[in-house]
Fold these 4 entries.
Entry 1:
Amino acid sequence: MSDADFMQLALAQARQAAEAGEVPVGAVLVRQGQVIATGRNAPIDTLDPTAHAEMHALRAAAHALGNYRLDECELYVTLEPCAMCSGAMLHARLKRVVFGAPDPKTGAAGSVIDLFANPRLNHQTQVQGGVLADECGAVLQGFFRGRRDSQRQQSQAAHPLRDDALRTPESAFASLPGYPWAPNYISDLPVLAGLRMHYLDEGPRALRQAQDDRVTWLCLHGNPAWSYLYRKMIPVFLAAGHRVVAPDLIGFGKSDKPKKDSFHSFTLHRQILLEFVERLELNNIVLVVQDWGGLLGLTLPMATPERYKGLLVMNTTLATGDVPLSPGFLAWREMCARNPEFDVARLLARGNPHLSAEECAAYNAPFPDRGHRAALRAFPPMVPASEDAEGAAVSCEARSFWQERWSGRALMVLGAQDPVLGEPVMRELQALIRGCGEPLILPQAGHFVQEHGEEIADRAVAYFR
């Protein structure tokens, strides 16, 4: 029998593992052309982290031969072995190892490390990879595709879609560059009334209020962005050992999108965020805001000031209605009214020439058609422009809070190229925030400051430490 024939036998074991709900990896162990042992993945069934297909095959072969030395044997496995299994193969003195698909995450036969090529080890085992690689890889891909589909179905069942809303298909968010985090959903906040809200929640979940060395970064996006905007800052916060929570406002990102523009209001979105912070029991918060993330977010701490310890504020404003809106914002609002179907990706590309086409396209992902864009149309006219406009009164209360009662620290970062909420607007905001020092000015950054997020996050971690 050929290598391909023996690999087909290993594939049969892999398929049995899949039927049992295990990751489909299979192995056969051959001596002088005869199969003497087989194995398939079974860590879940056996509650044993060492129960990989190769380990089962090695153990069975040793029992069959009455010797843990397997120096005349060859092992065929459908996936490149990990470090644990590779070490066992070397201890067993295997003559040869043949694998199918490479494993770019944990492979120890060349993909991540190559234990078999280490000349300092006292035994050398021959290795050959790529035998029926496509077929072996297809079995794994099919298994994980099915598991993702099942998880999506469970999510749909747990969060049924309201008749008056749309939900962007999960496929629209596949393979977004720099956005590897698992989604979280909530739909039982009173104000949501069943709408599904998406958020990222990464890092240690149980941060106590007294733990001043670790914080929860609550990252709020604006219009027309979503939590993807924070992908360059999140890794820095996580590397510091902190928690990061980044919700998608209703109508944006992976959150549900009500069909009618009239659904959206300042009061509604503020209430959603207030209930969200309470439900997740967030404490030791550094509030991270920009654009509408600031218009709404800057009104949150006065409701529960004990939850907040810091503010990282970027290109935003407090719209109190008694101060004229900036010419840049009025121009933006007029553009949105004239061109409600504007290309979000093109907007991002124009102000951020360093972004790849794929990164810009990710901003379009939540809005596949006009029906999904109600929030994009509704938000520009929602900014309070007069004292009797909705949101103006609570923004005035927030202004007093930041001037008189805020006791935390504040760091301002300013994208100098922003034509909408640039330096004049931010200087006015700086004067309103008690204890806010000279801003960090990024000469190359525009409105979407977070696209230069590594530098900002590094500075913020040090500042709020």
Entry 2:
Amino acid sequence: MQTPWRSGEPVVSGEGLRDQQVDLWEQVFSRGNLLIALKRVERNKGTAGVDGLPAQELRAWCQDHWAETRKALDAGTYVPLPVRQVMIPKPNGGQRMLGVPSVLDRLIQQALAQVLSPMFDERFVPVSYGFRPDKSAHDAAVVARTVMEQGYRWVVEVDLDAFFDRVNHDVLMSRVARKVKDRRVLKLIRKYLTAGIMAQGVRRETVEGTPQGSPLSPLLSNIMLDDFDQEFWSRGHRFVRYADDIRVFVKSKRAAERVLAQATKVLEQRLKLRVNRQKSVVNPASVATLLGFGFYFVKGGQVRVRAASKAWKRMMSWSSF
């Protein structure tokens, strides 16, 4: 397998700007795009938002109310509902917050994502594997294994502290605005970022973060971290990223420590994120993990992939129920 890296200029394509000035707003809210978004929301089902409207009733609701909703959107007076807070357990303890939008807001966000994703995706580096068409965690593990076989046997494991909760809205929107020139689209995305969170009947303001659980969140997370990707790609670093899981592969411990410092600088100073110093570590490849995968060496220098010990223990504990 060939690794996808090269040194040189960042990944940039002018194709993403095609039809950018041909009213992006109308593309998002065209009948065809909305119907595709509606089918996606219906297929995904999911729990209701703060208004209690279930996905199976969204189509009928839109037949009665979409005209007034579109009028409010066009006038800039549409106000998204706050997301409903849902806490789910994390594999290593603690809890992760999901934000569940109303089904109407899921429809609008899905329509936005369908138009915006192709515009941004073509610029993303090949080694960004999270939430992208035809890419998976398994693909990331295969590339990691290949790089290790090529001699990059020290791994920088970068852990971002509560990434989805700490995204700086101004930093994010400035990166969205690099390609999106329609002010109505930008204003609507900003409204979703600041829609607030409803927990136990109390609405909390959102001054930072992009809660997991919305159709836009995966795209926005990749847009936010693309500066990191472009910087490390242009330097020729061997790395993979899946959402906020970042692994960089180098040939010596000393180089790995230097790269960890570089990564921390880009993430904290440029993107205003927070690197978890306790969990961001340098490990030999035989100790490092990636997305629940571990790695081990066999005769001839080949590398094999297995379930990481923590993932294996979780799986065995589940099998006991």
Entry 3:
Amino acid sequence: MLFFNSTISPEEKFMARAVELAMRGRNRTAPNPTVGAVMVHDGQIVAEGYHRFCGGLHAERECIADAKSRNVDMSKCTMFVTLEPCNHHGKTPPCTEGILEAGIPHIVVGTRDPNPKAAGGIEYLESKGVKVDQGVLEEQCKDLISDFLCWQFKDRAYSILKLACTIDGKIAGATGAQEAVSCPESFQDVQRLRSMVGAVIVGGNTLREDNPSLNCRLDPLPEGFSQPKAVVVTNHLPQNHDELTLTTARAEETIFWTSKRQADSKTATELKNKGIEVVALPCCEKGLIFENGFKMLRREHGILRTLCEGGGKLACSMTEQGLVDEFVMYQAPRILGNALGRPNFAGSGNTLISEATDLRVSRVEQSGRDLKIVFKPEGQ
């Protein structure tokens, strides 16, 4: 993570390291939250831990185990943890009990736990004489659990929108020809994104122009990995479905979101006969309404996260419908300079900057020669 504030405090540096550790577990912790922790003594990090996978040790207990292996005297340490320690029995014992058993006198918490079952850890520790501070890098720590919040309070999959563009916001040239915009390192990072989602979503134009496979191409693939489903959003089901990768090689892993009229068509029947799922979504004057699709992915397929890699129109529609929880943009240090180049977002009726959708920057990282910027909706 890149920090542009040279006056960042030591406490923020320690919590930033806990955030960095937490991100390592994001791929395997679902449906648990992503959490990181560090142990500090005399201004130095002496032990670290993070929640590695669902059912495994929580970050606090991982950190305590690391401290024990290093013979650290935890009675003289402060633990920094991104999320309030849990105070209930789940697949593992309460982290609050582990902290008390270790004799840690001081805990710094990034953000409170929004889950009522797990909340109350701060008050419990304080009642036992542990000093607890909270709110260090709170926004970054909340961002770590934004997917968890979606699963807890919304009945749908968490939605990530991937963007790869030039400095002037172009995802392709004027002809729409398929060309790499970002660098090889960013391509690999996108594959890591694909490895942590249950579905990759594109629009009909992307299907027709690129004939994508939408599979994860990491080598090697994670142990026990299943390829994400492919979701195509279109008002026009493909007539040439015998020529497309998704509708031949990946038929049973492919879903079409379309209008009721298209879902009742002969083409839809042909697709269904191949094992492809065709889902009719409600429509409005601007096109398909996607929310039911995201709810269906969660309810019927158990999908917790999705990655949209569609074109500008799909990106714009999803944003306007409030169905993007995380924007991941790979900005290449390149300038096309052609007004006819295809933009990141297209199709909005907005004409003034005052009508624009406001986002906030969550993280900034280097990705090879590109800049990777993660945005969140304003107010989230």
Entry 4:
Amino acid sequence: MTVDGGGEFEAAWRAAPEAVRRALGLAYEALAAGGLAVGAVLTDPEGAVLAEGRNEAYESHEEGPGRGPLRGTPLAHAEMNALGAARTGWDLGRATLWSTQEPCAMCAAAAGFTGVGAVRYLAPDPWALADGSDGASGAAPAGDAVWLLSANVMFLRSVAVAATGPAEPAIIAHHRAVEPETAALHDAVPAGLPAAGSAEAWLAGLWPLLAPAARERTSRAR
């Protein structure tokens, strides 16, 4: 991948809300760790990050020091870890839960149970798209195609890295039909785990492909 030298990525990255940047950063951490690339944060009414978490369901405690008590369990979704980092006395009715993917039924229910004021996500969950349950969480999409594609290309890459056998994972094959721009970006990413030190650095390298892909998706979705 070529590196963005025009400063367009840096400007877009700085303009994104702190919650978007941090959630993508957490998703990238999960990807680099060999897990499922999903990140989530809780923010206050001004947009400052109060708590955060990433998907740790596929990381065992034996692999190193855990970030959260749910690590290595089916409950260790990014949103659950972010909610688990909140404190009981906090007024979550004034908080917003941000996730890189639309929350699953478990995480949406947890957000409702804990009284989170609003839930937003960057990209539709590829598995929800595959089974027709996208939008079922009631959460609001963030609406920026650049960060939607960023979130989902990380997600697909983590699925590809974890796959066994020669066949392409069904979720990636399905994405070719419903999100062709994401699939094309995924195909352009070098195989294996990423080598960049951060989400910002990795996405900057992808920007020459990411920016036009976002324009194409926006045009297709109209």
